[in-house]
Design a protein that fits this description.
The complex is a heterotrimer of chains A (about 725), B (about 100) and C (about 170). Chain B is mostly helical and about 100 residues long. Chain B contains 3 helices and no strands. In chain B, helix 1 packs antiparallel against helix 2 (about 25-50) and helix 2 (about 25-50) packs antiparallel against helix 3 (about 60-90). The longest helix of chain B is centred in the C-terminal third of the chain and has 31 residues, at about 60-90. The radius of gyration of chain B is 17 Å and the shape is elongated. Chain C is globular and about 60 Å long. By secondary structure, chain C is mostly helical. In chain C, helix 1 (about 1-30) runs antiparallel to helix 2. The N and C termini of chain C lie far apart (about 65 Å). In chain C, about 80% of the residues lie in helices and about 0% in strands. The chains are: A mainly alpha (about 725), B mainly alpha (about 100), C mainly alpha (about 170). The interface between B and C is large, with 77 and 91 residues.
Chain lengths: ~725, ~100, ~170
């Protein structure tokens, strides 16, 4: 029997850490094939384990475990279904389990819904550190969201690992790349299984670090290392907010429960309790949202994402399309009760998160039109779609946002890997002006790219149709219809998405080949993942098949499966789920097709105004504005950073020159003078004086005494007698 | 008679002899002065001998010593004059103030 | 006895005066030969003093050796080392040297005199027995035998030395 993995889920990140360490220490020695082999093996194992985890979670939801007769169980007879709301404790497992005291929650959360069984997530914890009298734990938390993220991350990572064996063949830092891929996967998995905000912070920073390392993989070119730095530093700006948010939410929830804790469940339960401090939660959530803004590429901290395309394409697919950038979305999804209470999502007023999400979708979409680099188009598309997800969560459509995260990961990764395949075959360029007519040469890539594009645009029956539709429906229905503006923004973006993706498609795959290489299909190692992803993009949309689809009602066990298993039922606010709205679905599809048609007309048929931007001053101004990315980079680098950098640099230069150098030079000159004094005064004067003096004394005394040696006997005799007289006198007179 | 008389006589002669040694330029004169000094010493010896052994006829150390001194004086004069003669032969003069070959 | 003593005293002082005068003339005379002759006076006086001290053998030996041999030797020396007749120019050292010598002599005299006066004032001779020559010889050849031999060797050496020194070859 498969052992119960839900409380041993830490094994999955641990395996990736082992993979990282192995590749780091032995990769170079074992060679490139062994390196990629190790990476792929470990990720594959993790993927299988994630599937097991997902299966076990599904099983747990279907058969929620009974609590063994504890007094905290509150059994309330509910409405039509008569299903008992069972509060469950943690599953049996090693270590101390954090008791999910759901009794109070049931009374606190009104109108939970008659059918929902509150299935508590599986939480494990081990003591981490003690501060004063408070003990903090580290641990894992597994519920549907975790399982979904585990599967997504490991699947995309596995496909990227396989893809990279060919894409990075012969690369100078092959081992290093695979090591960091493993580390990234480990960090992301660690992040999604965290049970408290501190651990999430650790995982967050780690993925940021891996992103930095991987973007700057070819750091020999300055623009690559610059891009890596830009990514890291922009994320750092947001991380300030994140840390503040973690602290504020901790203190907000510190009075709740048995003891203060950073735990997610603790915070969520607090947020849903009646005595929650909404103002504090509002501030905390806004600070947390700052982190989301930077990591998930929301306006205005999205500027790093397009530059991050300097990294290898598989990296872009993994990190900047499917997994890392959704870390912020995951954060909001995880701490949704706090956001719900703080930002009053359930009320009729619009709020910051939804607004930013909406703005981001439009901004990302607009910028995608003026890019000639296919990866940059996809990057802006990612920004736009991330805006969709944040907007969805902002309007309270939790499942829609998370489902879109899931589907977007699949088809965006497919798009990126397809772009990599295109460049790999077309002389290693990403410039769409050098491509064209690749449909004839790269059939598989073309097919998968088409499928993924249609999924992104949201055409039935591909995945994007379902997820984007849910978002729009949620924006429309809202929580008491507050977010009409978001709906409008979403629809506009749907049109723009179709238009720029169509543009990208036509410039790349249609027309005549404008480049210099000989385009050919990529090897199977690269097209394999593309096929897998495209196939998935076709079917995963049906995971969340709405209950009533244009009148089609499927049996309940086949509808909204995603929502059923992934949306939390425990410590979750009572969000309203919008049902499938036909007119929105039709409208968005029409907009999508219209966008594609516009692109077709412009590029394939050469219809439409040509050269408008050079003729019309307004259009030209708008184009320049877009081309300079709203001058945001200029604002950040020159204005904000420059105004701090300049005085700081000048100040530290002054300090260096006058104080530090002054001290050094002063010391040196003082010692020079001192040594001069020592030299002249002591060495020359005293010591040499002594030495010379002794010689001089000898010489002079010799000269002096020489005069006594006249050679004349009588003089000697005189001296003799005189001396004798004196001596005799001494003896006679003095020494009696 | 007092002993002092003879002793003073010896002292005076000695000092005169010293003066002569230091003041005379001629080598022979110096030797003569040395003779005077020796004689002064002799008288001292004899006077002391008489003082100590006045009644003892067997003990005459003073006189014997004086005899020895006379003998030595004789030997010394002979050698000294030989040297003076050699100096005179080599330098045609016995001016001792010119004998400064050991100068310096 | 008293008359003898008085006579001895007078004899002593007279002879002493002559001796001192003679010695002074020796060291101040400008004529070499005259100086030698004054030396004779000194030596004779010395012999007389010996007799006063009842040292007759010594007196006789003095006359024989000193006056008879040494002075003659001096005269020979003077004769052999004079370039021509007449006086030598300047037997004395220049005046500063003479003054120095005088000072030294006077100083020495002072010291000696003080010592003598301080040590032996009022010391008188006892009755001096007259020595016989036989006793002198007995003393030489018994008590002072070794010094006698040494003196003999010394004289021999001096003799040989003198001859060797003035050899002309």
């Amino acid at each position: 029997m498969i052992p119960y993995l839900l409380d041993k889920v830490w094994v999955i990140p641990a395996l990736m850490v082992v993979s990282f360490a192995t590749i780091l220490f032995f990769g170079k020695r074992l060679g490139t094939r062994a390196t990629s082999g190790i990476g792929i093996t470990f990720v594959a194992i993790c993927f299988l384990l994630s599937l097991v985890v997902a299966g076990q979670w599904v099983d747990r939801v279907n058969h929620p475990p009974e609590v063994p007769g504890e007094a905290t169980t509150e059994v309330q007879p509910t409405g039509a279904e008569g299903e008992a709301m069972v509060a469950v404790t943690a599953a049996p497992g090693p270590g101390s389990g954090e008791t999910a005291s759901a009794g109070t929650e049931q009374a606190a959360s009104p109108a939970q819904g008659a059918e929902s069984e509150s299935v508590a997530p599986v939480v494990t914890s081990v003591p981490w550190f003690t501060w004063g009298s408070i003990e903090f734990d580290a641990g894992t938390l597994v519920d549907g969201l975790t399982a979904m993220m585990l599967v997504t991350v490991t699947l995309i990572s596995l496909l990227v690992h396989i893809y990279s064996t060919e894409y990075l063949r012969g690369d100078v830092r092959y081992t290093h790349y695979y090591a960091f891929l493993s580390l990234f996967t480990a960090s992301m998995l660690f992040y999604v299984v965290s049970s408290n905000t501190l651990q999430m912070l650790v995982g967050w920073e780690l993925v940021g670090l891996c992103s930095f390392a991987l973007i700057g993989h070819w750091w020999e070119e300055k623009k690559n290392s610059d891009a890596a730095l830009k990514a890291f530093l922009t994320n750092r700006v947001g991380d300030v907010g994140l840390i503040l948010g973690v602290i504020i939410t901790f203190f907000a929830a510190s009075g709740f429960g048995e003891r203060p804790s950073f735990g997610i469940l603790h915070l969520n339960e607090y947020a849903l309790s009646p005595g929650a401090n909404t103002t504090l939660l509002l501030v905390g959530c806004l600070c947390l949202f700052a982190g989301v803004t930077s990591k998930s590429g929301q306006f205005p901290l999205h500027t790093w994402l397009p530059d991050a395309m300097a990294g290898p394409t598989p990296v872009s697919a993994l990190i900047h399309a499917a997994t890392m950038v959704v870390a912020g979305v995951y954060l909001i999804a995880r701490l949704f009760p706090a956001f719900w209470t703080g930002l009053a999502i359930g009320s009729s007023s619009m709020h910051y998160v939804a607004l930013i999400g909406g703005v981001t979708t439009i901004i990302g979409g607009a910028l995608a039109f003026v890019q000639f680099d296919i990866k940059k188009v996809l990057a802006y598309s990612t920004i736009s779609q991330l805006g969709y997800m944040v907007m969805a969560l902002g309007v309270g459509a939790w499942t829609a946002g998370v489902f879109h995260l899931f589907t977007h990961a699949i088809f965006k990764a497919c798009l990126f890997l397809g772009a990599g395949s295109v460049s790999h075959a077309a002389h290693h360029t990403f410039d769409m002006r050098q491509m064209g007519g690749l449909r004839k040469y790269m059939k598989t890539t073309h097919a998968t790219f088409v499928i993924a594009t249609l999924a992104l645009v949201g055409i039935f029956p591909f995945a994007g149709f379902w997820s984007k539709d849910e978002i729009l429906a949620g924006a429309n229905a809202g929580q008491e219809s507050a977010y009409t503006l978001m709906l409008i923004m979403g629809l506009i973006t749907a049109f723009m998405t179709a238009a720029y993706m169509g543009r990208a498609y036509w410039m790349t795959f249609r027309g005549e080949y404008r480049g210099h290489g000989t385009p050919h299909e990529s090897p199977r190692v690269m097209t394999g993942p593309l096929v897998v992803l495209a196939a998935l993009a076709c079917v995963i949309g049906f995971l969340n098949f709405p209950k009533s689809f244009f009148g089609l009602k499927l049996p309940e066990s086949a509808t909204i499966r995603f929502e059923h298993y992934v949306e939390p039922t425990f410590a979750f606010p009572p969000i309203s789920h919008a049902s499938f709205t036909p007119w929105i679905a039709v409208l968005s599809t029409i907009l999508g097709i219209a966008g594609l048609f516009v692109a077709y007309a412009y590029y394939a048929r050469n219809l439409g105004p040509r050269g408008l931007t050079s003729r019309n001053r307004l259009a030209h101004g708008g184009y320049t504005f877009l081309e300079n990315k709203y001058y945001l980079d200029h604002l950040y680098t020159d204005v904000i950073a420059g105004s701090v950098k300049g005085p700081l640099a000048r100040g530290s230069d002054w300090f260096n020159q006058h104080v530090l150098d002054g001290i050094v030079n002063g010391t040196a000159s003082m010692f020079r003078r001192l040594s001069g004094v020592v030299y002249r005064g002591i060495d020359q004067f005293v010591i040499d004086g002594l030495v010379d003096g002794s010689g001089t004394v000898s010489q002079d005394s010799g000269q002096f005494l020489r005069r006594f040696q006249t050679g004349r006997v009588q003089q000697y005799g005189a001296l003799l007698f005189a001396g004798a007289t004196v001596l005799a006198g001494v003896f006679v007179f003095v020494l009696r | 008679m007092y002993v002092n008389q003879f002793l003073f006589l010896g002292a005076i002669l000695f000092c005169i002899g010293v003066y002569g040694v230091l003041a005379r330029r001629n080598g022979v004169m110096i030797l003569m002065s040395v003779e005077i000094m020796l004689n002064a010493v002799n008288i001292n010896l004899v006077a002391f001998g008489a003082m100590w052994h006045a009644g003892d006829i067997a003990n005459m150390s003073g006189q014997v010593f004086a005899l020895f001194v006379i003998a030595i004086a004789a030997a010394e004069v002979s050698v000294g004059l030989a040297i003076v003669l050699m100096i005179y032969r080599n330098r045609q003069s016995i001016d001792v103030s010119e004998l400064d070959l050991m100068k310096g | 006895m008293l008359a003898l003593l008085v006579a001895q005293n007078i004899a002593f002082y007279v002879i002493a005066a002559l001796m001192v005068f003679g010695a002074i003339r020796v060291v101040t005379c400008t004529n070499l030969v005259h100086a030698a002759l004054w030396l004779v006076l000194v030596l004779s006086g010395m012999a007389a003093q010996y007799i006063l001290l009842a040292a007759e053998f010594v007196a006789v030996t003095q006359v024989l050796v000193y006056i008879g041999a040494i002075v003659v030797l001096f005269l020979f020396g003077i004769m052999l080392t004079r370039a021509g007749t007449g006086l030598d120019g300047g037997l004395d050292n220049p005046r500063p040297a003479k003054i120095t010598a005088g000072v030294i002599g006077v100083g020495l005299l002072g010291v000696l005199g003080y010592a003598l006066w301080d040590g032996w004032k009022d010391q008188e001779f006892g009755p001096i027995a007259v020595q016989r020559t036989a006793q002198v010889s007995d003393s030489i050849f018994s008590t002072f035998l070794i010094p006698f031999w040494v003196i003999s060797v010394l004289l021999l050496v001096a003799l040989i030395g003198a001859i060797v020194l003035v050899r002309r070859d």
